[in-house]
Amino acid sequence: MNYKVLLIVLLLLGLGNWNSINAQEKEKNYGFRDESLSIDERVTDLINRLTLEEKAMQMMHDSPAIERLSIPEYNWWNEALHGIGRSGVATVFPQAIGMGATFDEDLIFEVSSAISDEARGNHNTAVENGYRRQYSGLTFWTPNINIFRDPRWGRGQETYGEDPFLTALLGVAFVKGLQGDDDKYLKTAAAAKHYAVHSGPEKLRHEFNAVASQKDLWETYLPAFEALVDAEVETIMCAYNATNGEPCCANKYLLTDVLREKWGFKGHIVSDCWALEDFYGGHGVVETPEEAAALGIKSGVNLNCGSVYPSLVKAVEQGLVTEEEIDEQLAVLMKTKFKLGLFDSPTNNPYSKLSAKNINTSEHRALARETAQKSIVLLKNDNVLPLKNDLAKYFITGPNATSIEILLGNYHGVNPNLVTIIEGIAGAIEPQSQLQYRQGTLLDRPNANPQDWASPNAGNSDATIVVLGISGVLEGEEGESIASETFGDRLDYNLPENQLDYLRKLNEAAGDNPVIAVITGGSPMNLKEVHELADAVLMVWYPGQEGGNAVADIIFGDVSPSGRLPITFPKSLDDLPPYEDYTMKGRTYKYMDEAPMYPFGYGLSYSEFQFSDVKLSKGRIRKGQNLEASIEVSNIGSRKAEEVVQLYVSDLETSVDAPKYQLYGIKKVNLEAGSSEEITFEITPEMMELINNEGESVLEKGEFKIYIGSSSPSNRSLELGAAQFKEAVFTLR
Hints:
Blueprint: H1 3-29, H2 39-48, H3 52-58, E1 62-63, E2 74-75, H4 96-102, H5 105-128, H6 164-179, E3 191-195, E4 209-210, H7 214-221, H8 223-230, E5 235-238, E6 242-243, E7 246-247, H9 252-262, E8 268-271, H10 278-281, H11 289-298, H12 312-317, H13 323-339, H14 362-375, E9 377-381, E10 393-397, H15 405-408, H16 421-428, E11 434-438, E12 463-469, H17 497-510, E13 515-520, H18 528-533, E14 536-541, H19 547-555, H20 588-591, E15 609-611, E16 615-616, E17 620-621, E18 627-635, E19 641-651, E20 662-671, E21 676-683, H21 685-688, E22 690-691, E23 697-698, E24 702-709, H22 715-719, E25 726-732
Parallel strand pairs: 3-5, 4-6, 5-8, 10-11, 10-12, 12-13, 13-14, 17-25
Antiparallel strand pairs: 1-2, 6-7, 9-14, 15-18, 16-18, 18-21, 19-20, 19-24, 22-23, 24-25
Helix pairs in contact: 2-13, 3-13, 4-14, 5-6, 5-14, 6-8, 14-19, 16-19
Protein name: Beta-glucosidase
Pfam family, one: Fn3-like
Family: Belongs to the glycosyl hydrolase 3 family.
């Protein structure tokens, strides 16, 4: 080779190396990489380096890498409803409705803290191995704090139930556990969804207009969202449907007037997935993707889950939106990435230490079991539970006894050790006992073979455990419930008739031997005949990976049941308004006229509790004053148990329709047999406020009644065996 050519080659190689070194040095000098600057300064520097095309793509849920700035790709879409979902092995906790049944904010904080440990461990492990795919990020679209206003909604299982106070209490705890308590970094970013007034019909969600009065908005549909904004939730997800005539993701009243201006929300807004496409494909408020993209930006939607925001480039060219408006919304979104530490050195972030070792730990498995135990609701017990675990013969049967599906609910992870109910029962009985199993009946249709070799076992068994109910194939999101002809909603309130036929046979065959019905599902259902035929009834929801063990713990008495219903079980859908009607009159324990099958807040124990008379610190108060209500709770039964003490407040003199009573306090007490504990509730002015027809919170003078007990204060609760609740009256002057 000519030495001149060689010299040129060496110079070029040296220049290449210099350019590489120079690029690395430049990267270090980018303002958005400088951790000494404020987040606002870093965001501004970053946005100023982006082209319009890059800005648009960074506002997509699947934002691509920007190689020239050494910014890796990032997928914003992750789920953590009851454990990190869809991302491989993780601890699977009970479904959200089961967590609602615990009535336990401290426990739910523990659960979400464990989930966020696993989330960081999952993310860190994925990135270390070069994976930046969907469901491996740190932004979680959880929790679902919609109000479960109607049992027909298939996605109600994702919520904490029908009550705004309980929903807010547990939702705030969940957000705090997910987001952590570091002064600088978010552990993960939580999202409150679906904002707002969203609870079916599932099939119509892309075009449906939910009409809600100002009173219902501010009394029922918005309080939990406000509570989570006050708790500094990082993300709000706007819903598919329209509310009062405007799509939720383009609803000026909800997004601007209320969320940004009234509540002062500082985080980012994400569209539900492909909700911006519904602007032209469902709601018909615009005609083109470019118009939809511009409307999304002008409405304050910072992140597009879907496919619309790439059209922002053409929208700018068409004069529908300005680049400055895009910059403003992108800046809000980018702050979240900085709060998560995605542009910082991992050595400065305490959560970078979490790894695969923090996923699916024995401690998390124990927590999943405890949560499942505390979620199980004892609906009936004719003195047959708890069972001894050394009887001669047990018979377990039913379509869900061996089902993994009923452990999971929706938006779930997977686990290498999912404990079905038959496995839990088998693991709990003594070696000398015999356990027989037959499925007996199919889930939702008659057996093709008419021969019945199953039900006679109930006659020669000391106890029969029949696992009935529904699963995620019958209820859930629009496209997931593959056995549902109504797109995941449950327009038929009854259990499948073949299940009832089988239970009738078991009841007849069993004679004097007890039949225990274990019911799975994420929503209320007609259990009237189950209640009549079975000697004991347990509602176990979708109990997670330890579900089988938790059910066995309850059945054999290792744990006394303490779950409470977070939603009313009506006797019939005929007792409710039409599904599409979003007015609250006639709905939930607050406004329902007909006596329910099972009331909100109801659940039995293996022990017996008694409440003393309520002592009020004051009988008359002035506006703005608090008072205290004290009560002594006594375990007068024969075994240690946990009681869920509930406070309800009723405004007896109102200028407009008001709830019969409202839950405003929960205290859990764990008492040995024969022991007592005095507990005190503080009653604040906020608990006395009335929402008027204009949606305003007002304090009206007059008499108020408080109830304290183990269930909502209805006659039906007492008929079913709940402890007698106690009452007291005070006057607001």
